[in-house]
Specification:
The protein is mainly α. It is 92% helix and 0% strand. The protein has helices spanning 3-50, 57-106. Helix 1 packs antiparallel against helix 2.
Length: 107
């Protein structure tokens, strides 16, 4: 394999590794979000069973679902932003790799 071929291969491996790292970061973020939501579910159950501050379950459920919808909306926005950032990074890296390969071939 030529030096140029080795550089192209190394760049491809680097892009794949970077993509895998980003995917794992997103999954860690999702797991953190799900953990938080499950903790909120546990809190809801506790409130429904033990709390005397609500006169009925409708108040507890109303607060819970309002907060849940807001948090899911915020998480969807965060994921969309993260996806755009990752895509932009991948394209920038690919462009740099292609430009470097073209320069190497021109030499």
């Amino acid at each position: 394999m030529t030096i140029n071929g080795q550089k192209i291969g190394a760049a491809a491996v680097s892009r794949r590794a970077h993509a895998l790292q980003e995917m794992i970061r997103v999954q860690i973020g999702l797991l953190s979000f799900y953990q938080h939501r499950l903790e909120q579910d546990m809190h809801l159950i506790t409130e429904l069973v033990a709390s005397g501050k609500y006169h009925n379950a409708f108040g507890v459920l109303d607060d819970f679902y309002r907060d849940a919808v807001a948090e899911y909306t915020n998480e969807a926005h965060r994921l969309a932003s993260e996806g755009c950032r990752i895509t932009s990074d991948v394209v920038k890296r690919a462009i740099c790799d292609v430009e470097a390969s073209i320069r190497d071939l021109a030499v």
